[in-house]
Amino acid sequence: MSYATLREWFERVGHLGHAQAMLSWDEAVVMPPGGGAARAESLAELARIKHERVSDARVGDWIAAVRTEAELDPWQRANVDEIERTWLRARALPEDLVAASSRASTLCEQAWRTARPRNDWDAIAAPLGEVLTLARERAGCLGEALGQAPYDALLDGYEPGMSRQVIDPVFARLKETLPALVDAAVAKQRDPVPLPGPFEERRQAELAETLMRRLGFDFERGRLDTSHHPFCGGRPDDVRITTRYSTADPLESLFAVLHETGHALYEQGLPPEWRGQPVGGSGGMALHESQSLFLERQVCRGGAFLRFAAPVMRDAFGGDPGDPAWSVDNLTRMAARVQPGRIRVEADEVTYPLHIALRYEIEQALVAGEMRVEDVPEAWTARMRSYLGIDTSGDYRDGPMQDVHWFAGLVGYFPTYTLGALTAAQLFSAAARDLPDLDDAIARGDFGGLREWLRERVHSWGRLRGTQEILRAATGAELGVDAFLAHLERRYLG
Amino acid sequence: MSYATLREWFERVGHLGHAQAMLSWDEAVVMPPGGGAARAESLAELARIKHERVSDARVGDWIAAVRTEAELDPWQRANVDEIERTWLRARALPEDLVAASSRASTLCEQAWRTARPRNDWDAIAAPLGEVLTLARERAGCLGEALGQAPYDALLDGYEPGMSRQVIDPVFARLKETLPALVDAAVAKQRDPVPLPGPFEERRQAELAETLMRRLGFDFERGRLDTSHHPFCGGRPDDVRITTRYSTADPLESLFAVLHETGHALYEQGLPPEWRGQPVGGSGGMALHESQSLFLERQVCRGGAFLRFAAPVMRDAFGGDPGDPAWSVDNLTRMAARVQPGRIRVEADEVTYPLHIALRYEIEQALVAGEMRVEDVPEAWTARMRSYLGIDTSGDYRDGPMQDVHWFAGLVGYFPTYTLGALTAAQLFSAAARDLPDLDDAIARGDFGGLREWLRERVHSWGRLRGTQEILRAATGAELGVDAFLAHLERRYLG
To answer: Residue A369 burial (CB < 10 Å; 0-12/13-18/19+)?
Structure first.
């Protein structure tokens, strides 16, 4: 009885989540600017109602009753655990803080969209300050209620159970190892021949859809659109991925699409019988990111995939089969090019963790109150120089304004990108062990076996198993740095 | 104090309305089919929460307190009246009935989209029966609570204060007058030369946007997209209009766009200081339809507009300036062509009210329980033969399945189309009286004066004035049939 009540209650919470997901997609992809103010209010209202429901005192009573009475199967038990986790986090946050955070984030993100192209840090500093103040308040409330350090409490919302204690040594090792690896890779690589452009957006979109379909994306249950910043949103039966196009460089957009397709396949592969329930959702963001990086970095930027994809890409743009720019070798050089640069989403996988280390350190300092918003540009410039040897002073657009995250209120999220990269490398190495024909299958454009492997080992578990448990079962070990570093050495120095 | 509480409460109700409007737009325009089931649940949940809020017992207390205490200005008083009206209607409906109606309508509309192209009445009869059963239940509850006949109670939800008592004599006169007028117009008109197609969708969309902009549509606060059935949705600062394209006939889509643009200008012209409050919304659907028909029928299908638009259209499709197909005379013949046909949205304005009479009679019988869903096709065929002299037997696709309304749960809505046509004719005749230069201005493509006239006389009143009050103030008379019949005689027999 109590279990059924809980299930129905959270099914209704899920309906609100559906509305939030779709309105957020709309806001980023189609909404005209004039709709922004009303959209912020509507999203804030939905956040408030959802929060009211999740934090309802009766939820605690139902959970307590279920624990004493009901005979539950493991999925149902995990569902109750997940509900309790959500409930405890929601109870920690006052309703007004939740609505204010939603509203401030939506407005700040809208302001960011116009301020970024103008390199206008001053225009965004105040709204960002507001968003960060609210994030610190949330961190404080959550930390106190859950007995966690404030930053850990935010992180735990994105990747359950993760903490600075686990992450700090990871970044220490990466910061120690990667700079030399970057230098070695740069020294070893040969320059690619540029692709003969320009490349029409429409053809890029068609190519993207062709490859998405081939990789298993179900267009009956999803879409591809254009937005300022590539993302994967929506819901498992209506997955919305986006990209942005550059007519000069078709690979930038294509790899963004393949990345988001990895996220999408995870969503579309979640257990359908648990649709709408907390336990049926995707796992932590590190695991989610592992799925996008598995597809983009481990599979699609590798030589086997490019053997399959090179002619498909060439034909999509009417390229000359004799043109060496379209050769597998040249495309592989492009796809695995290492080059320290300003922009995270354009970064190669060797320099990428250094971009994350920079953000991880700054956002920790912001949450701890050890850094003020106005000090962010200087901290950014200093770290870009130290970690990547690049001078970015005065560049806000492709400096601290390049990513939507902080402006959208996502603080404590960045480390999951690098945790995802480690997880992806570890999973791919296990897949290669389990599927001896893997490289040939990929080179033939046959992704069925790999998708099945991911579905069985990762997607179909929903939130029944945590990230570490999934890793242990699939790879025999918990999260580590070794598989990632071995992958980098093989691909870039091999 | 009570007024502020009421205002804030209904502002929050408005945020839910925003979410509903955008999710409905998404459902019709971009949602992949797999997202349909979850969307229906999400919309039903929003309908349920909104209904809970609107019908909250405290709303009645706040209204009572405001009535005794507060000193309100006329807008605030009208806002309270409108809130009371909404509250009384909501109180009449049980929450489960509201959620069930929303869910059944969303699912039935989705089923309609696949069944219609297949001419498959059997596939849609059961979901339609469910939707109609729920509409009858709503009509019964509302009628009992408000002391109205069941059909009037539904109608009143679309056009406040309207009733069969007003409408029946209107349709009686139209059914008596129009058949002879149709015959005379058909006998008098000359055949147009067909336009040299095919017409690329992209160019049609560009032309549509050009004309929308010229007519005053603000693209900072709205969009044009493609859907199965043209409509105007969204919110005043984010108006979403849609059309569908035929590559054979660019006028069909263009006039649909101009029609929806009339709706959109109304929404964009609503009083900004009352945004989000009930009194700041658009008036009844007859008034709304009068704005679309004012623009499409009174203005854009007339000779003056086509003097301006003919070269714009010709150039948009790269037409030959010497080609008589693109002459003003030929386009005017096309735009004012009278031809009894099966399809309401393609019907000329002379036969159009007969399509509405048919639907009005059938839906009345359905609500009264005098007709069953399975008898609709026969009733349809009989009336099509009698009113328009057309045999449509066996054609469901372009028969009773042609319009989305019933399948989407909109029962009691159809008569507002014809009431809107009468209102539009009456308003246009007053505008021509007030703006002596009107025809020349239109022929020059200068719509500023006309838009100002509409804004002052109609748009800026929100719901402060009802349709009849707006008509009296703008035209000197309440709703009548004379201006409409005079317009038809002038345009088609003049």
So the answer is: exposed
